[in-house]
Amino acid sequence: MKIELLSALIPLFPLLGFLINGLGFRRVPKGLAGVLATAAVLASFLLSIYLFSSFSGDSQPLVATLFDWISVGDLHINFSFQIDQLSLLMLLVVTGVGSLIHLYSIGYMSHDEGFGKFMAFLNLFIFFMLLLVMGSNYVIMFIGWEGVGLCSYLLIGFWNKNISYNNAARKAFVMNRIGDLGFLLGIFMLINTFGTVEYLDVFKQATSLEMNDSTVLIITLLLFVGAMGKSAQIPLYTWLPDAMAGPTPVSALIHAATMVTAGIYMVVRSNVLYTLSPLTLEIIGGIAIATALLAASIGLLQNDIKKVLAYSTVSQLGYMFLGLSATAYTAGMFHVITHAFFKALLFLGAGSVIHAMSDEQDIRKMGGLRKALPITFVTFLVGTIAISGLPPFAGFFSKDEILAHVFEHNKLLWALGVLGSGLTSFYMFRLLFLTFFGEFRGTEEQRHHLHESPISMTLPLMVLAVLSAIGGGLNLPGNGWLSHFMAPIFEGSRLVNPEAFAESTIEHSTEYALMAVSAGVALLALVIAYVMYISRQAVPAPESAERSLPEQVVYNKYYVDELYEAIIIRPIRGLGDTLYSFGEGLVDGIVTGIGWLVQKTSAQLRLLQSGSIGFYVLAMVVSIVAIFALRFFIRL
To answer: Where are the domains of the chain?
Structure first.
């Protein structure tokens, strides 16, 4: 099968699923709509596997040009896809995890009257995400980038009869547009600097530039602004927790394998440019660790099961960027993959709990659910262990690899990273213990309704649990498979800065000690959570309870939303209202004045129409004299 046809079919299947369900969502039966949407993504997954199996770690990138798209002077932009190690990994993750989320949605959303429309939006989301990761240039990436932003708006606000959900969708859309402006300016600078947006051409030219080039610094910073929006880094992170307004499958899709990892993918794809700009990497490292710790600390006191996982996602994205800041690009991508497994598992597990609890999301009203939801409990436990960084599950290996590189790069960042790892372990086991252990704290009606989810929901949980348990085998310490497979992606970076890719100078004994410290801190946090919420059976205080000042600040998410409201939203809204009032008065005044002037002038002119022939003859003579006089003076 030709590479062009194969590459085109992968995004085409989800697009067809969107068109069928989107145009006929009122006519296509629910059962058929779910099967069509899931089959479309599954077909893309099978094609991705076929493509992956025929591509070795040493293969050169393949560019499949579908058609010539834009030609302006010397600038030529093709609509083309690039198949290489990085795009193949993302294809497998997006379509694989996406297929499981589509299958889960069949059970979770089956009673929703907009089921067909929902499945159509999911397909459209996957289509744009595939464009983002398959494009051979920054413009195709930007199309996918904007597309997933649009779909996130549609999916977050899917239940649009609720005003707060609409506000959350609008917030996500606006904050992403802020980041997208930076990304777009970065693309314009790429065109101005390199005369092209094709990855292969840009990176080939970039290898001839000097380290710390000022132009590259500006380009990388602008591109990172885009990543801050999509991947929820300070200060553009507050949209992501609010995105929990959407149905749970949407939360899993956005937070696990697709939209929020777009920023990580973009930086890894542009690794040559970022390696050329160490200052940008230092800035990324500072923002990343601040984001990781801020979000983790907020997660300590959240009581909404999805909000805890949302802040966990923000924190984990900080870890990924922390790895990238130490030029540990493979480790960052490794954590993207493992995070896709366990975070999708945790969100879908949370959805199973919410489904059983009649849409209740407050963990203070749960407890003792492990008996009623055995499959959900076991799989959620696996996801919790994985994200907490406890061996031998997937999260331990990917997080440890990031921390090892950061230790070599900056000891302070490593210490803060270990602290963040401990916080992650504590709030995740707090969530697990309060949800599944102890006595049931809900209503009798909820107790009566408790039941395990259908197989369409539990099967994806079981598959993701297995992947979360064994996923660490992708890149075991000591030149693992993933490191070898992705090595060709970083040839340009090795050329411009060989020191950044030199063999690690950390001794094996030190590496083992770092692993022990990381795992030990996570284990200690687990024990503290166990003592508090199992031994002492503590339950978080209700909303109305009095809290100490530090606790109140953390509980209210450091009042960041309120700060943005006070210093950005209200002033801009006030300015807009003022300009509107001024403009309305000015425009209305001009329009009214012109109307008044015309009216008065016409009233006077009509007096000249007296009906006297003598006056008309006089007017004609005067006019002719005036015309001759005017022509005479013009000639002079």
So the answer is: 137-477+486-545, 561-633
What pLDDT, in 10s, does the model give residues 460-505?
Answer: 999 999 999 999 888 887 778 898 899 899 999 999 988 878 777 7
Please report, in angstroms and rounded to a whole number, the separation of the first and last CA atoms in the chain: 82
CA 479/CA 57 separation, integer angstroms = 14
Q: Please, where are the H alpha helices in 437-541? A: 444-449, 455-470, 481-486, 491-496, 508-530
| Contact assessment for residue 204 and residue 272, using Cβ atoms and an 8 Å cutoff | no
**Site of tokens 């973009």:** 266
| CA dist., res. 366 & res. 150, Å (int) | 35
Whether the pLDDT of residue 257 is over 70: the answer is no
How many Cα atoms are found within 13 Å in the side-chain-facing hemisphere of 76?
7
Helix (H) or strand (E) holding 138: helix 138-156
Tell me the angle at which helices 411-436 and 278-299 cross, rounded to the nearest 10 degrees.
30
pLDDT for residue 87 = 94
Distance CA 260, CA 514 (A): 29
Q: For 611-632, what is each residue's pLDDT tens digit?
A: 777 777 878 888 888 888 888 7
Residue the block writes with tokens 């205080």:
541
Which residue in the block uniquely carries the two structure tokens 């919790």?
Answer: 384
Q: Name the β-bridge partners of 82.
A: 63
Question: Can you give the three-state secondary structure of 377-435, one letter per residue?
Answer: HHHHHHHHHHHHCCCCCHHHHHHHHHHHHHHHHCHHHHHHHHHHHHHHHHHHHHHHHHH
Distances (CA, A) of 308 to 216, 378, 430, 434: 37, 19, 10, 12
Torsion from C-alpha of 390, 395, 398, 399, nearest 10 degrees:
-60
Q: 398 falls in which pLDDT band (50, 70, 90)?
A: very high
3-state secondary structure 283-306: HHHHHHHHHHHHHHHHHCCCCEHH
* Residue 63 β-bridge partners: 82
Q: How far apart are CA 529 and CA 424, in angstroms?
A: 11
* Distance separating alpha carbons of residues 466 and 483, to the nearest angstrom: 22
CA separation, residue 120 to residues 164, 243, 258, 414 (Å): 23, 19, 17, 43
- Whether the CA torsion 193, 194, 199, 203 is positive or negative: it is negative
pLDDT at 636 over 70: no
Confidence band (pLDDT; 50, 70, 90) for 164? Answer: confident
Interatomic CA distance for residues 258 and 92, integer angstroms: 11
**Mean pLDDT to the nearest integer, 513-541:** 92
pLDDT the model gives residue 545 = 83
Q: Give me the long-range contacts of 217-222 (CB less than 8 A, separation at least 24).
A: 217/277, 217/279, 217/280, 218/189, 219/186, 219/189, 219/190, 219/193, 219/273, 220/186, 220/270, 220/273, 220/274, 220/276, 220/277, 220/280, 221/280, 221/283, 222/182, 222/183, 222/185, 222/186, 222/189
pLDDT one-digit tens code per residue, 428-452: 999 999 999 988 888 888 888 888 8
**Helical residues (DSSP H) of 196-304, grouped into ranges:** 199-206, 214-230, 239-242, 248-252, 262-269, 271-275, 278-299
The alpha carbon of 249 is separated from its chain's Cα centroid by a whole number of angstroms, namely 15
The answer to whether residues 347 and 252 touch, using CB atoms and an 8 Å cutoff, is yes
How far apart are the C-alpha atoms of 174 and 177, rounded to whole Å? 5
